[in-house]
Structures are given as C-alpha cells and as structure tokens.
Amino acid sequence: MSERFKNATQSMAQRRQDLFSQLRAQPSGWEWCRKLSALHDELWRELWSDITMEFPDLPPLSIVATGGYGRQEMSPSSDIDVAFIPLAESPELDQAIRILFRNAHDAFGRVLGVRLSYVYRLAADLPGLDSISLTSFLDARLITGSSAPFQNFKEALWSDFPTAEFLNAKLEERRGETERTHTTPLVTQPNLKHGAGGLRDFHCNNWIGLAIGERAIPPTYAADQLLLYRNLLHLISGKLQDDLNFSRRDELAEVLQKDPFVLGSAIAESLTQNHNDYLHGLRRLTDNRYSLGQFADAARGEVRINAGAPAGQTAALLAQAKTIGLELPNQLPVLTPQVGPEILSALTSPTATLRAIESTGIFELIFPELAVCKTLMPGDASHRYTVLEHTFQAIEEFERIGPGSPFSEIRNELADPNLPSLALLFHDLGKAIPEGHHQDTGAIIVSEVVDRWGLESSLKFNLSWLVKNHLLMSQYIRVRDIDHPDTITEFAALVPNLELLRTLTLLTYCDVRSVSPELWTPVQQTYLLSLYERASPIIDSKENPSEVESSAIRRVLSTARSTGNTSIRDIEEFLSVMPTRYLLSTSEETILIHHQLYNQVESESIIVTFQDHRELGLTEITLVTPDRPGSLLNILATLYAHNLSIQNLRCATSESNPAIIIDSFFVSKAGSLLPHHLRQRLDHDFRRVLEGEVTATEILHSKGKDPDRKQQFFTLEITEKNPLILEIRAPRGRGLAYRLAKVISEQGLSILTARLGQWAGSASAGFYVVHPDDQPINIPSLREAFLSPAD
After folding, report:
1. CA 595/CA 435 separation, integer angstroms
2. 581 pLDDT band (50/70/90 cuts)?
3. What's the confidence (pLDDT) of residue 210?
4. Domain end residue (candidates: 499, 518, 546)
5. How many Å apart are CA 313 and CA 307, to the nearest integer?
6. Which domain holds residue 732?
7. Looking at the predicted structure, is the pLDDT value of residue 227 above 60?
8. 545 falls in which pLDDT band (50, 70, 90)?
9. Can you give the CATH number for the domain in which 139 is found?
10. Which of 44, 361, 688, 727 is the residue whose CA sits 20 to 30 A from 291?
11. Is 154 found in the same domain as 169?
C-alpha cells in the first residue's frame, strides 16, 4: 500500500466523519447516501490506481458495487458489497485481487470501520446463482476498472434471465420478511427496512419492474423519508439497526425537533404510502405483457407456453406462474417429453398450485403414474376421496402443521422440509396396480420414476423406504404395546435414521387424517407422538434401547422418595412380586398408585377405580382383586354388556399368594367419557360377576347379547416372540375384545395386554399372550381356533 493511498484513506476517514456531522445538522435520505457512496467510490479508485501501478499489464477487470452500495443507498452503518468481474480467469489477476482485497479490508475495515465483503464472478457463473445473488446484480454499477467485463456480464444476465423463478422467489422472500417483522405498515415500532411498508417494499417493487423489462423507478418521497429516518437511526445507535423502538423514536424526534407522536404518525404515513406503492406495483404482474424466460410469456394475466417447450421445465414454469398470480392455460401446446430434476420445484409447490398444474393435463405426460389416480377408487370403504384427491388432502394436512400443532416441532427439525410432501405425493401410487400390496408396488414405482427423472440416489432411497413403510407406524400404534421397551426397540430397528422417522411420523399423521375426519382420534395422536418420542433416542444412539428390571425398580423408588412416601420397604416388596413386563411398561406414578390399591385388597376383595383422560376422550377403569379363573373374560363380558368401546387393556398378575390381578381398561361410551351413573352400574356388575353372583353368559343375556356368537376374521398374523403377538383384522362391531379373549382363553392362554382400534373400515386388534406355565404355545392349534368357520 503506497504512502499516497494511506494519506488518501486518512483524508477519507475525516470526510466521512464530516458527512456524519452534516447528517445530524441537515438530515436527508438519498442525497446524503449518495454522498457517502461517492466517498467510498473514491477510495476504490485510489485502490485500483495503486494496484495498476503494481500490475500494469492486468487483464480487464470490473470492480462493481452491488446491493445497497450499488443503489448508492449507503446509510451510516451499511455494509459495502462489491463484485470483481473479469473477462476470464488468470493467475496474475488472482494475485492482484488478493492484494486489492487485503488493502481494501485494511482501508475500509480498520480505518473507516466499515464491514466489507466481495464476490468473484464470471458470466459463466450466472446459471447457478440464486435469486439473492441475482438481485444484487440488478442494482449493480461500475465503480472502477474496465467496463468491458461488466458490460459482458450484464448482457449474459439478461440474455437468459429466469424471470418466473426470480419473481416467485422475490415474492416469497418478501412475504417471509414481513411475517418475521410486521405484515401491516400501521405499527408503532416499525422495522424501517424489512417490515411492511419498509424500504424493501420499494426495492422489491423496483426489482419486479426490472425483471419484466421496465426501467428503474426513481426514489419516491415516501421511500426518501424512510431512508432519512434509517440514516438517523444508524447515526444515533452507532450500529446497523432497522428496528425503530420507542426510545430510538424519541431520539430521532429530538434531532428533527418534532413531537415523538407526530413523528410516529409521519413515519406511519410514509410506510403506508410505500406499502401501497408496492401493492399497486404487483398488479403489473397480471396486467403487463412480459417474457417469463425462454419457453413462456405472460399476457393479460395468463401464462402462455411455447410449443415444443420441455415438459419438465414447463411444469416448473406453471408452478412459478401460478404463484405470482397468473392463470394457467386449460390446454397446453405440444411439448417435448424431457423431464429432469427441475420437476421437483413443481411437485413441492403448495397444494393449490399442484391442483392448478394438474388441471392443465401435464401430469399425463410427465407423471402418468399420478394422473391415473385422479378418478381411481380406493379399495376400502373408509376412504372418502379418490386416490389423487386423498393425496392432495394429505399434503394440505401437512401444510396446515404450524405453530401450536403438536407436530410442528417435528416438522421444524426436518433437514429436507420437502420430503414429507414428496412422500405423500407418491405414497398411494401402488393402488393403481391391483396385484400385491400397494405399499410394495408403490416403492417399485418410486424407483422407476426417480430414475426416469434423473434424481439423486439418496432421494430415491428415502422415497422408496417411506412409500414401502408408510403404514408401519399406523400398524404399531393400532395393535402393538408401545409402552413396552421391546416394542420400541423392534420398531426402531426398522427405521434407518432420524430424518426418516420424523418424515414417517408426519406422513402417518397426514395420511390417516385425510382418509376421513372421523378416523384420526386423540388416542391415535397420543400413541403416534409417544412412539416417535420413545424411538428417537434409540435411533439417534443416545440411549440404551432396553431397560433392565433393576433400573425400573430404582426409578420407582426414586419417585416414591421424591413425593415423601415413607413406605419404601413395602413398595420394594410389591415390586418383587410383580412381573418384569409390568415394571418395564408402566409409569412410576401409576405403579405407586397400583401399590396403594394392592394393599387395600387385603381389606376389600374387589377394588374398582375410574380415572378420566379428557385429552384422549377415554376413561381408565382399573380393577384390583384376587385372581380367579376367567376373571378377564368376566370383566370383558361386563364391558361388552354395557356397549363400551375398548381402546386398550393391560393385565398384570402378581406372583404373591394369593395372586392379585391389576387390570386396566381404557374405554369410552359413544366416543365420550363414562357418565357417573354408568360408573356406578359398572362397579355393581363387576362385583357381581367376579364374586360369582352371575355368570358372564347371564350378564350378556340380560343385555340382549349373544355370548356364543362366533367372531369372523379377515386376517390373523402371529409373531412368534415371548410373549406371542396376535394381530387381527375383523369386521367392526361391539364385543370384539370379549370374543377374541374367549378364543384365547379356550386355548388355555393368558392375555398380558391388548390394543383395539379401527382401520380401513374394519376393526383391528393386537393381543400379547403367554402360556401360564411358560409352556410352548401350539401355533397351528391357535391359528385353527381363530380361523375356523363361524357356525
């Protein structure tokens, strides 16, 4: 760095301070910003002069101001953004730029205290630039150096400008900015740049105009006033600040010698005018005629696709055009069938846009596997919509997950926020092929389509896995005991990673919700979230997948001590006679409650308690009594006699003498909690049937039920584990739990836990059973007992 340049830098620093003093004495907007920008331009020219003296034969290089500096909109604490644009790369140029930038950092950063950033760009880089980078070059201007590289760059920029994509990105970006700050200009503490009515409204209005071929808009009075307020805010705060709070507003009012409330109203007026200008400017998108890129134009509020356009790029253009407010054509011209990764931008659009794209008929060309589902009827009566409409409804459910939803945190943790909507788009495509399970054929379709479109192998794996397993969590929450660690371990082993677990959880929720509104219940939601929360640490390898019995006992005793319970030895004795499965699958608080009930059995032969779970719409009935032959069947007969729906039941028998059963049933009456009078009647009937006053047959007959009615079955799956798991699908109807338990009891088996629910128009149930003497279970005999024809 030459001595001459050092002296020039010191002089610039003093002149910069003089400008700050001038701003306080005579506040202004663009006029002052242009002076500061011009001062910085002088310093760049000095830098360039120094470099050309050191490198006299440098190839052509343009030093270009971008962003706010390019607009000559430098407020006191604004950053300086520049681009170095050569005609071509060269080693000598690289060395010169490194020295140039080092000297610039020293001058601007150390001496002037201005943050500086730069980019190195060739015209060949343009196709890969995002909308933010493109925007910075819309405001670009030459500071110094050769004009040829910059001119060449601008010509390349506009020769193939992605108008539709750019407009779509700018509108979305602007919506996001106002949502993060304020969506109306009529606020008391505005953000002068990013809030509704802020300077960004003026900028965006200008960028839209440039993108559709208009000239730049000169600064308006409202925008100039806002820039004046922003200049003073920077000056007073001494930093880059755009939020004007009450304290800073009062300081601005003092500088401007105005009443703070009068100033607040003046600021609101400028914000309102600026925002109205922006909203009015948006009308150009539907009123004007302009090019949307190489393959389409906008005219009279409609998008017009050119004949011969590639189908994949056309789909992307249609999505972008719909988002900026253009109507899509009812009929498309003949297109060429090329489809590549660009199709993803269309397929991950909001559902309203997907519906509009589908209405053009383009899916028949690019995605026939989806198009065929439009009028395809699902194979079960529980679905309310055709396969395609169900798919769109499911994606809309995903879009509705926002703040306040119990699934919003899961959605926010996704690495790929588009994966759930893509998986939902593909999840039922296999239903168009009658042979086989639709999840299996759907996974094959995914592989074929992803290969055809040339998408990444990682996306192919994720989508294939999700489609193949999209019923997995539904199956587990319907019929498996998710309170037991073995179930969670088994499930976690099937899921490759946390990203797929998160996506599968969201997919399950949206899929079931969109089948029909009645199908998704608070119980299912609770079980789904519980399965997700319990499996997450195992999949993430942060937690041992199984809890040993001693650890469970320690947790119970620790909870007892923390609540001031002094009967620790008595609790230890209770835990010693309860089976391991009970200890591992029951919460510490519930175990302590059961301990109290267990002790009361000594003075009462039968204890019945009722506890409401309002968030689930279920009442929990707990029965504690000495074990008797057929106790569970008698209890289930009583519940059936009173027309109660059973969602879940858990059975535990102590190893004490006498053995004590602790059985819990989660039930509802017509979808609601049990009323008081019904609880009294149930308590009475439980005691009668358990004490032998009446038999299960008699109590069922008294309520008009047939105790000998055979249960019909659709499917029976047996998982040979310990305990044995029976997964059953059967016709819907009351008494399912009783009739299934009767078959199991007749085989001499004991039920540990059961889950009951509904799915796809039929009932589903899962029973965990063991032989009471730990003998092997005769699987063929059990299967025959279930599937033998009804009389």
Report:
1. 53
2. confident
3. 95
4. 546
5. 13
6. 709-791
7. yes
8. very low
9. 3.30.460.10
10. 361
11. no
Please report, as a single letter, which amino acid is at residue 461: F
Residue 303 pLDDT exceeds 50: yes
Same-domain status, 13 and 144: yes
| DSSP letters spanning 207-258 | HHHHHTTPPPPPPPHHHHHHHHHHHHHHHHHTS---B--HHHHHHHHHHHT-
Give yes or no: residues 389 and 441 share one domain: yes
CA–CA distance, 578 with 595 (Å, rounded to integer): 10
Residues 419 and 542 in one domain: yes
Same domain? For 138 and 240 the reply is no
The three-state DSSP-derived secondary structure of 371-428 is HCCCCCCCCCCCCCCCHHHHHHHHHHHHHCCCCCCCCHHHHHCCCCCCHHHHHHHHCC
For 400, residues 6+ apart whose C-beta sits below 8 A from its C-beta are none
* pTM beyond 0.85, yes or no: no
- Print burial letters for 248-264: b (CB count within 10 Å at least 16), e (below 16): bbebbbeebeeeeeebb
11-33 residue pLDDT tens:
889 999 999 999 999 999 999 99
Does the CA dihedral 65-69-71-72 come out positive or negative? Answer: negative
Asked if residue 332 is part of any domain, the answer here is no
Q: Among 546, 569, 597, identify where a domain stops.
A: 546
**Which ranges of 283-379 does DSSP label H, i.e. alpha helix?**
284-287, 311-323, 343-347, 351-359, 363-366, 368-371
The answer for 243, left when phi > 0, alpha when psi is -120 to 50, beta otherwise, is: beta
Residue 333 included in any domain:
no
Specify the 3-state DSSP secondary structure of 5. helix
Question: What tokens does 441 get?
Answer: 């054929």
Do 129 and 200 have their domain in common? no
Q: Judge whether 199 lies within some domain.
A: yes
What the block records as the tokens of 777 is 């279970």
Distance CA 547, CA 554 (A): 11
Burial tier of 288 (Cβ tally within 10 Å: 0-12, 13-18, 19+): middle
Whether residue 636 lies inside any domain: the answer is no
pLDDT in tens, 238-277: 999 999 999 999 999 999 999 999 999 999 999 999 999 9
